[in-house]
Amino acid sequence: MNTSLPRKTLPVPSLRNIQAFIEVADTGNLNIAAENLNITASAVSHQIASLENYLGKKLFSRSSKGVMLTAIGKRYLKEISGALNIIGQATSQVINDIHQDYLRIHSAPSFGLLWLMPRLNKFRQAWPELKISLTCSYESIQFSRDNIDIDIRHGLSQWPTLVVRTIRNERMLPYASHTWREHHSVKTVEDLLSCDLIHSDSTLINWNTWFSWHKVGDFSKNIIFNFDRSYMSIEAARMGLGVILESNLLAGESLRKQHLQPVFADDVGMSVNAHHLVMPHTSEQKAKVKAFITWISEELNAAGFQI
Hints:
Elements: H1 15-27, H2 30-37, H3 41-55, E1 60-63, E2 66-69, H4 71-96, E3 101-107, H5 109-116, H6 120-126, E4 130-136, H7 143-146, E5 150-154, E6 163-166, E7 171-176, H8 178-183, E8 197-200, H9 207-213, E9 223-227, H10 230-238, E10 243-247, H11 252-256, E11 261-262, E12 270-271, E13 275-279, H12 281-284, H13 287-302
Parallel strand pairs: 3-4, 3-5, 8-9, 8-10
Antiparallel strand pairs: 1-2, 5-13, 6-13, 7-10, 7-11, 7-12
Helix pairs in contact: 1-2, 1-3, 2-3
């Protein structure tokens, strides 16, 4: 039989009321406190009154010059400030503790497979205490619901409430396998009109845009394969099935391994800002996210890209 006394619960006021109290105490002005808290002055006044009613004590004296802490208010501010600092330190430690923690990354499929996966073990070696969870899809994720720290997205940048770091220096270029190049003489953009072309639905710049940019038309009959993922188009080109129009960012590993070659010696590529590191403002402050951003920035710089 458990004969221990029940644990006594200490009274704890509303944290919103405490936050309003500290803001008014710091500023000495209800209006400024309301602006800092992004609420109305009436709401701040109500929260202060609610806290005073809870405590049964007056925390402020009011005059034409504003509000001033009473003696009890000063003592209360001193005591709770220490407690809130302890809470803040504990919260920061939990947020920034990367030991035995997961870094949860979501990525567009082609970037995840073609660019991130071949390098991911380098990040793991640099941060061996950090576990990594990587999911890939084109689905729209919600950071809190899906428990994601950072999302590497493909598309147009249109997320004004989030932190967005765009990968720069990405270009769209025609590529083909070494075998295909040996059997096809391509000197000009017009020469591609007699070649088998591979189309990828997922790219922001497709053959139609690229040919129009070069003032060349009547090419659609040459598209022999159509894929909805860049990694499928790149694999088809590697197999010698035709020419792809792809990102130098995604094709980089195939170029390094000499599975693919640029079709043209000169740079005929179009610039595109198609890949972005996206995260909530709270995630940006996490030590594990900072570590990943630093690492991926260095990897991108080494490959000629920037964020």
